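Subject: for your reference before the review

Hello V.,

The reviewers asked for a structural picture of the protein, and I figured it would be easier to keep everything in one thread rather than splitting it across files. Below is the amino acid sequence we used in the manuscript, unchanged from the supplementary table.
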Amino acid sequence: MAGRARLEHAGRPVGYGELWLDECETELARLIVAPSVRGRGVGRDLVRHLTALALVRGPNVFMRVHPANAAALRCYRGAGFVDVDPALAEEWNVAQPVSYVWLAHQSSADSAPPRQS
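And here is what came back from the structure prediction:
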């Protein structure tokens, strides 16, 4: 883990996320938003903040999302992420426990690097 962000409202934590660094990319991971503030833009703010931190390092920013998490997918797409090429997602899912939906920030959507994991 190379970074993390914690959002608070009225002194209480309402959001958390991490940045995981690889040789040529950054992955947003472990994003959590308190149920009491979901649907209010907190998740989108968290994703945008983490993405800004990641883009300082380089243009290749990715995330994986469980396919059943429709609310998270809407949030991340609203924050500037797009689906990676289906063949690339299939390749990246080979070693995964489920077939995740892989997203790339728009700045990296056309230049996806090869993944080692």
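For the response letter, the relevant points are probably these. The longest strand covers residues 12-21. The chain has three helices and six strands.

Happy to draft the paragraph if you're swamped.

O.
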